[in-house]
Design goal:
The chain is built from nine helices and five strands; from the N terminus they run H-E-H-H-E-E-H-H-H-H-E-E-H-H. The chain is an alpha+beta fold and 180 residues long. It has two domains: 61 residues, Arc Repressor Mutant, subunit A (Orthogonal Bundle); 117 residues, Winged helix-like DNA-binding domain superfamily/Winged helix DNA-binding domain (Arc Repressor Mutant, subunit A), CATH 1.10.10.10. The strands form two sheets. A three-stranded antiparallel sheet has the order 1-3-2. A two-stranded antiparallel ribbon has the order 4-5. Helix 6 crosses helix 7.
Length: 180
Amino acid sequence: MSDVRHQIRRRIRTDPGIHFNALARELDLAAGQTQYHTRRLLRADEIVSEELYGRTHYYPTDYDPWDRRALALLRRETSRDVLVSLIERGPTSPSAVADELGIARSTLEWHLSHLVEQGLVEKRYDERNRVTLHLANPERTGKLLARVTPSVADRLVDRFARLVDSLLEDAHADASAHPE
C-alpha cells in the first residue's frame, strides 16, 4: 500500500468522520491526490464514506450508519453545542438552548432539523403543544462526543454562519421595528 494511503487510513482511524477538505488540508495533500487515494481505499473496503448535508465524511469500516451520521453532525460546532447543552441540562425547551448558546432561533432550528432527522434529538410535545428537546440516545451520543475534535477551520465556518444569522436577525428586527 502506498505511504499516502497509509497516512489517509491512519488519519481516518484517528479522526473518524473527518470530511474530505479537512483530510486534504491536515495531511497537506492536493484535492486530486486525496480523491484518488480515498477512492482506492473505498474500493478496497478499507474505509467507508458518507455524504451528509454537503460534506463527504470518512470512517473506519467498523462504524455503523447511526454512529457515522452522529459523528458528521458532531463535527459542526453548533450541533455539537446543542448536544452538549442537552447532555448537561437534560430535556429543555428550544428557546432555553438558543439563549444559552447565544444563537438565533432560526440557527438552532436548522441544526435541530438535522439532529432530529438523524435520530440524535427528539422533539416532544406536551398537552399545550410546547416543545421539549430530548437526547434520543444520551449514552451513545456522549461516547461519540469524546471522539470529536473539530478543526479550527470547521469552527471558523460555524462561527461565521452564526454571525451572518445574527446580523440577518438584527436587520429583520430593525426593519420590523421601524417600518417606513
